[in-house]
Amino acid sequence: MVKTVCIPTLERGNENKLLEPRSHVGMHTEPEGRKAMNSANFLEKLLDGVGVEWKPLGDIAKKISSGGTPQTGVREYWEGGTIPWMSSGEVNLETIYKTENFITEAGLKNSSAKFVPRNSLVIALAGQGKTRGKIARTRIDLTTNQSLASITVDETVVNHDYLYHFLKTQYENLRQISSGSGTRGGLNLQMISNYKFPLPCPENPKKSLAIQAEIVRILDAFTALTAELTAELSMRKKQYNYYRDQLLSFEDGEVEWKALGEIGDVKMCKRILKNETQPEGDVPFYKIGTFGKQADAFISSEIYESYKSRYSFPKKGDVLISASGTIGRAVIYDGERAYFQDSNIVWLDNDESVVTNRYQ
């Protein structure tokens, strides 16, 4: 029986967008990428023979300050507010065009919140998880909470976007210098003020700004490309999920349902003992926590070759299935040298003339 598949309706004018090749989905990946690389070549010539001076942020900042939070229980500080107020979590947006919350003039006057002009930088001083050390650039005038530090730079010396891109590369370093440890650590304004950045051609401000602007142009071009590719990937995943669900959904009587055990035998690798593994080595050993990811344990080539020849081992194309922990996760074995945790990772040794592995 042939199953009828309904095609999802898109907004008028976008009916074919999901099925168009990448180059026709409003994307110009190749020419834009080439343009960015040409700019990189130009920049290399521009930087030829140019010196760099590492300067503290405090030397080029007009102002470095933290914000504040009006009392949340006072309605007149929040209700009807028109002043953008940025919370710590919003630093993850990276470029700020709007904020979720607003405060009133009364809230501004009766708290430590301060106006931060557009084209400033904001760094998370504290925050749970991975927030601390994140940086964003503002495109609007706003205020912030006390866990954010704002940096307003002297634009005659440094391009704020250049500084933004540099500080993005310093995330791990900023976290390492944070006071305290773990998730309770925190940056402070003095740490931010003392933190150094590379200023190209400091003896010639005009040329320095030209170099910084070229760096910004290249990095912003790649940022835009990344955003487009990410958006397209998300769309393709939704497309795949839709058609998978449509094509693999059946009414009663349309197909015959079989247990996996009826079409093949469930197999698993020989058990690997803990003393047979090492943090580095020849052959990746995948466990439940690393299945489908990056291996954090290895076995020797000798053990691998011995166990592979003497015990069950998957063929290239076999579907490996997690039977514990992340139950149901499936990965197609690519045939590369690797070994898999017994009982927790299994596969079906089936007759592909009846059911193909990829259909499973």
Order of helices and strands: HEHEEEEHEEEEHHHEHHEEEHEEEE
- Identify low-pLDDT runs: 1-30
> For the terminal residues, how far apart are their CA atoms?
20 Å
The CATH superfamily of the domain at 52-200 bears the name DNA methylase specificity domains
Mean pLDDT across residues: 85
User: CATH top level of the domain at 52-200?
Assistant: Alpha Beta
Strand content range: 15-25%
Helix content: 25-40%
How would you portray this structure in words?
Helices cover 30% and strands 19% of the residues. It has 360 residues and is an alpha+beta fold. The strands form five sheets. A five-stranded mixed beta sheet has the order 2-9-6-7-4. A four-stranded antiparallel beta sheet has the order 11-17-14-15. A three-stranded mixed beta sheet has the order 5-3-8. It is built from nine helices and 17 strands.
What's this model, at a glance?
This protein has 9 helices and 17 strands.
Would you spell out the secondary-structure blueprint of this structure?
Layout (H helix, E strand, L loop, with lengths): L28 H19 L4 E5 H4 E6 L16 E4 L8 E2 L4 E3 L1 H5 L11 E4 L10 E4 L4 E2 L3 E6 L6 H9 L2 H7 L11 H6 L1 E5 L4 H43 L12 H4 E5 L14 E4 L11 E2 L1 H10 L8 E4 L7 E3 L6 E2 L4 E6 L10
